[in-house]
């Protein structure tokens, strides 16, 4: 097998991607479909799920609030049944959470951010790990963290706290699951261009009482390459980690961010 062959995920991989009807998750799901994987997605937005299925007839999908343990259990059961097992879990689902000083954050918004970004990953892991052990010869878990999981992020403390926690979760699970040949890694996207980042920039600009253009330029000035990353950049790293080329990569928090220097 050549080095180039190692870079291609094995055809027929059975992949579950959470929060994947739009954004980064959708790009990851589409990339796996292009690599001849069998892909199951879930998302809380039923209409977006239907649009994703219409675009990609081979896609399997379910609707679920990932912060709800019972709904997660139902997704795992359906994915296992429709895919015939599981090789790759991509724990992607997450929300931006509130923007503001810590003393002004609504406790309900804090709790919702933790439930969606962190608890959901545990809910999927507790059900998916036994399936990965039973049905896969090359199992992999890929968790979506953030550059805010390696740097402090003022006025975004709920989001940053969950993303740091995901890195700790991944590093601990890599040790725990290594003897079972399960590789566990985190991807830390930087400033990802798109509508979601536009909303984050607008909210932070309002919080700091500056213009949106000034806030956007401030973000770019913090990036060594002076550009945002795309959802395809994140999808490409996900495919690499699921490919034979990534077979000895585990316990890593891999930044795809153009080298964000500070937040």
UniProtKB/TrEMBL annotation:
<dbReference type="InterPro" id="IPR036291">
    <property type="entry name" value="NAD(P)-bd_dom_sf"/>
</dbReference>
<protein>
    <submittedName>
        <fullName>3-ketoacyl-ACP reductase</fullName>
    </submittedName>
</protein>
<comment type="similarity">
    <text>Belongs to the short-chain dehydrogenases/reductases (SDR) family.</text>
</comment>
<dbReference type="Pfam" id="PF13561">
    <property type="entry name" value="adh_short_C2"/>
</dbReference>
<dbReference type="InterPro" id="IPR020904">
    <property type="entry name" value="Sc_DH/Rdtase_CS"/>
</dbReference>
<dbReference type="InterPro" id="IPR002347">
    <property type="entry name" value="SDR_fam"/>
</dbReference>
<keyword id="KW-0560">Oxidoreductase</keyword>
<dbReference type="GO" id="GO:0016616">
    <property type="term" value="F:oxidoreductase activity, acting on the CH-OH group of donors, NAD or NADP as acceptor"/>
</dbReference>
């Amino acid at each position: 097998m050549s080095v180039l062959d190692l870079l291609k995920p094995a055809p027929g991989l059975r992949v579950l991607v959470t929060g994947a009807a739009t954004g980064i998750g959708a790009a990851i799901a589409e990339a796996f479909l292009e690599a001849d994987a069998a892909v199951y997605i879930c998302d809380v937005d039923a209409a977006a799920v239907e649009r994703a299925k219409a675009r990609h007839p081979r896609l399997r999908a379910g609707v679920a609030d990932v912060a709800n343990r019972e709904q997660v259990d139902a997704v795992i059961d359906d994915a296992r049944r429709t895919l015939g097992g599981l090789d790759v879990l991509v724990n992607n689902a997450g929300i931006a959470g509130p923007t503001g000083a810590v003393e002004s954050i609504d406790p309900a918004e804090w709790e919702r951010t933790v439930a969606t970004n962190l608890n959901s990953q545990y809910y999927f892991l507790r059900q998916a790990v036994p399936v990965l052990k039973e049905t896969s010869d090359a199992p992999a878990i890929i968790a979506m963290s953030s550059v805010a999981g390696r740097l402090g992020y003022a006025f975004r403390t709920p989001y940053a706290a969950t993303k740091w926690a995901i890195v700790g979760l991944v590093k601990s699970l890599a040790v725990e699951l290594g003897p079972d040949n399960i590789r566990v890694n985190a991807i830390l996207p930087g400033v990802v261009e798109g509508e979601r980042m536009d909303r984050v920039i607008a909210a932070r600009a309002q919080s700091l009482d500056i213009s949106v253009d000034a806030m956007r330029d401030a973000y770019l000035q913090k990036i060594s390459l002076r550009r945002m990353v795309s959802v395809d950049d994140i999808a490409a790293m996900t495919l690499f980690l699921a490919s034979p080329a990534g077979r000895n990569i585990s316990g890593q928090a891999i930044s795809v961010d153009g080298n964000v220097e500070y937040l």
